[in-house]
Design goal:
Layout lengths: L6 H7 L4 H21 L3 H6 L6 H30 L7 H13 L2 H11 L8 H25 L3 H9 L4 H29 L3 H6 L6 H11 L3 H24 L10 H4 L4 H24 L2 E2 L2 E2 L2 H6 L12 H33 L3 H5 L2 H4 L2 H11 L1 E2 L2 E2 L6 H23 L3 H9 L4 H30 L4 H4 L7 H9 L4 H23 L12
Antiparallel strand pairs: 1-2, 3-4
Helix pairs in contact: 2-12, 2-19, 4-7, 4-9, 4-14, 5-7, 5-14, 6-7, 6-14, 6-24, 6-25, 7-9, 8-9, 11-12, 12-19, 16-20, 16-22, 20-22, 21-22, 22-25, 24-25
């Protein structure tokens, strides 16, 4: 087992990182470089910005990002405050429920709000902002609540005793202490909203972000050079934003005795209950939308999905699509988890390396840009892989890999070295040491990684929208296609497929609840 105290062993341990490095380079770095090569043409580099729809897409992206981020952070502060009261009954349940939306597929969130919002606002800016707030409020809660819980209540009490009002004490005492967490939440939520694809694709109507405009130009207009230019420009801006954020002070999740002294406030219970109910409302609306249309209960959508349909444009083989999505998810998890474990084994020994950062690149790369880059890169001999059935699940594995690493590496790095040394002293080989010492201690993290990999693959929509063909659609692609068609029957069927996707995703996420360590704490 490599250790930081044994350079020779650690050097050999670099071999563990090779599979992950090859995957990221082949399916992220090379495709992005291929996109960049398409922008060399000056006509594309400078002329694309004057083409119809580009300025509107840029303006809508900036405006909806700012508005969505502001609304999300404001709405997330109340539940973050409530859930910082760890003595509150039902705290763990409320925290788990309010985190669920962030883990749901974007098409499920989009379908839920299509079923919940009235027809006058179900598509457009209002719908996009509401869906983004619902999807990302968990980021604010998970980022701000742990820090809020560590603030000594005596500081606020001292300010109140000196005559400060409740609002003055918050502004002068609590807010400065929360500033690093708030800035991190703003950065993460802003990045998520700016690179949003599935939500805007389903709810944007005539409005489009740069992500959606890249898809439109590449698939609908055949303007590959223009789409490449837009994708590269967005990647550069995203990279700059992430670099600035990483350069700032990082939020540190710490345990503190202040939690035990934080009293259970009655208002915190009310806020937590309201947040929990509001989280469940869109999910309930999604289920009801699959069996209710124009004020009447009906199973027409489910009958369409479970029988051979002769309705033009609505021939959906749900068992086949479900099996394909589950197979892709299983393959993605079978690749991402072992590769992530191997990479974490090296990273835990090497502590922090440039290689470690390279392996986390899929976190910051646009899935749409990666999908377009793969189409461009692997569409001709000798690497004509675009029509290969295995390409989507492998791409899903690359997307899931950083999450697997973030789950396993912190747990593995905290394994006491003397346990490995004792096993080695007793004659165990490095492989035997890893199998008998490391694996039992990281088994909970491995279960979490499996669940996350399955859920990420099941819901992946951005890159998959470029890679699937008519005979290889996944559940998210089928949901978007059905809800994009007109007619009550198509809408009922689309919500039905979204319900199926929701259920299988929740089953996958059930694996993560078996581990006591949450993915977000990494």
């Amino acid at each position: 087992m490599p250790s930081s105290a044994d350079p020779a062993t650690a050097g050999r341990g670099r071999l563990f990182a090779v599979p992950g490095l090859v995957m990221v380079v082949a399916l992220v770095v090379v495709p992005v470089l291929a996109l960049a090569s398409r922008t060399i043409d000056s006509a594309s580099l400078f002329g694309v910005w004057s083409r119809p729809g580009i300025v509107d897409a840029i303006g809508f992206t900036v405006f909806e990002t700012i508005l969505s981020t502001l609304v999300t952070v404001v709405l997330g502060l109340a539940p973050a405050w409530a859930l910082s009261h760890h003595s509150m009954p039902g705290h763990r349940f409320a925290l788990a429920v309010t985190t669920v939306p962030f883990m749901l597929p974007t098409v499920v969130v989009g379908a839920a709000f299509l079923g919940l919002l009235p027809g006058s606002v179900e598509r457009g800016l209002v719908a996009v902002v509401i869906a983004h707030a619902y999807f990302n409020v968990a980021v604010v809660i998970r980022t701000v609540a742990p820090v809020w819980a560590t603030i000594d209540p005596m500081l606020v009490a001292a300010a109140r005793n000196l005559g400060a009002s409740r609002s003055r004490a918050f502004v002068s005492v609590t807010l400065p202490l929360l500033k690093p967490a708030l800035l991190s939440a703003v950065a993460i939520v802003g990045f998520m909203c700016a690179t949003s694809y599935g939500v805007v694709r389903m709810l944007g109507g005539g409005d489009a972000t740069l992500e959606v405009e890249v898809y439109r130009r590449a698939i609908l207009f055949g303007d590959i050079a223009g789409a490449s230019t837009l994708a590269v420009a967005q990647l550069v801006v995203a990279a700059i934003c992430l670099f600035v954020w990483v350069g700032k002070d990082r939020v540190v999740f710490t345990e503190s005795g202040h939690r035990s002294r934080r009293r259970d406030h009655p208002a915190a219970r009310v806020v937590a209950v309201i947040a929990t109910v509001l989280t469940a409302v869109p999910i309930v609306a999604l289920v009801l939308s699959s069996i209710r249309s124009r004020g009447h209960w009906t199973l027409a959508g489910w009958r369409l999905l479970t029988s051979d349909s002769d309705v033009p444009g609505l021939q959906v083989d749900l068992p086949d699509v479900l099996f394909r999505s589950l197979a892709f998810a299983a393959i993605a998890a079978a690749i991402a988890v072992p590769v992530g474990i191997a990479t974490s084994t090296f990273s835990a020994a090497a502590r922090r390396t440039i290689l470690d950062r390279v392996l986390l690149l899929p976190l910051g790369a646009s899935a749409v840009a990666v999908g377009l880059g793969i189409v461009i890169t692997y569409d001709s001999a000798p690497f004509d892989f675009r029509s290969s059935w295995w390409l989507p699940p492998v791409v899903h594995a690359v997307v899931a890999l950083p999450f697997v690493i973030r789950v396993i590496q912190p747990v593995q790095s905290r394994i006491p070295e003397h346990l490995r040394s004792a096993a080695a002293t007793l004659g165990a080989s490095p492989l035997r040491v890893w199998a008998t010492v490391d694996v039992p201690l990281i088994s909970g993290a491995i279960r979490t990684a499996v669940g996350l990999s399955l859920a990420i693959s099941l819901g992946e929509f951005g890159a998959t929208s470029f890679l699937t063909r008519n005979d290889s659609d996944t559940l998210p692609i089928t949901v978007e296609q059905l809800l994009g068609r007109s007619g009550d029957l198509a809408r009922l069927a689309g919500h039905g497929v979204a319900v199926v996707l929701l259920l299988v995703t929740l089953v996958a996420l059930a694996f993560t609840t078996r581990s006591r360590r949450s993915w977000s704490a990494s």
